[in-house]
Amino acid sequence: MANTTSPFGLREEDLIAIPVEALKPNTPINFDLYASVGGSKGPNPRPSDIVLFASAPSNWNNTEPAVLKKCGISSFFIRQADHARYKSYLAFNSAQRSVDRNGTPEFRISQIQDIGSHLMEVCFHTGMDHLVLDRLQTVADDIVTCLEDDPRAVRHIQNLVDHDMYTYFHSTGVGILSVAMAKAMGENNAEVLRGFALGGLLHDIGKRLTPLHVLNKSGPLLDSEWELMKRHPEDGFEAVKNLEVPQMVRDIILYHHEKRDGSGYPHRLTADKIPLPAQLVSIADIFNALTTTRSYHKKRSRFEALMLMKHDMNGKLWSDGFKALIAALTDGENKDSEELRAICV
């Protein structure tokens, strides 16, 4: 980027280089693309020019990277201000892959988490729209199908992830676990199960408006920070207000932090005033968080997490939902399953 000029008044530090291979054929881009053209080296070097190659919004065509490189273009440039849009573009394209329904349960769950987490990354960077919602509904279908084929697939949820990706992976894990719990309670209606999957995926979507210093803080939150954190259920409810999502998904988003004793938020609802789908997802949310390594606590074993939930959350959580969590996590008569089932006694 040295020795470049731009008729757009752009400075070198305003731009980020991206490889031409990062742009996939026939994909929409919502950021301007710039290219460095001209220029020469030698005894009398001439500076290259930064020119606008494609303005947003546009659809990237089938131009091959090799053709661009023959023209002397090996990289494009984007504005610093468009970096979040570029990251969302990459994430959305990564999420366009399909789940291999012939793969092992472990492989399918891994694919679902990878695709789902990239979609949630898009949601957090750019917000919700119908295109992203349609793709999330496909992921919800994949979750339901995978657990219908093999309910034990829930055991393969991966919780040890990069800190920056925690929220995205967490949401996908909660969606998977919520469906497994609902099935453990005898729910077999595909529409209801899809609602649990989508509700789990979107339960924390309101956190896209929570300041990063609050979301990523390694210690206890200050009272003022806690007030900011407690806004995310209502922010999430607003995020899907104009989208076609089932009422149970809206309830999950808005009420998943309510507690049966009235100590939750945002409305301090009690007991049966809290919709049951939200109560179930709340349990999946807590368990997934406890069994994940975070900056402020180490990963707990399934047994440790369940014991903590039983003793510290007594009176706050739906007892039937807690039993469903244990049922979803147990398999056969092995020692680990016996220990987990004993928690309910």
Summarize the structure.
This protein has 345 residues and is mainly α. It has 14 helices and seven strands.
Explain the overall architecture:
The protein folds into 2 domains: about 5-80, no CATH class; about 95-340, Hypothetical protein af1432. Helix 5 (about 165-185) packs across helix 11 and helix 5 crosses helix 13 (about 320-330). Helix content is about 50%, strand content about 10%. It is globular. By secondary structure, the chain is mostly helical. The model has no long low-confidence stretch (mean pLDDT about 85). A 3-stranded mixed sheet has the order 1-5-4, with no helix packed on it. Strands 2-7 form a two-stranded antiparallel ribbon.
Relevant terms:
Hypothetical protein af1432, two-stranded antiparallel sheet, 345 residues, 14 helices, globular, 2 domains, mainly alpha
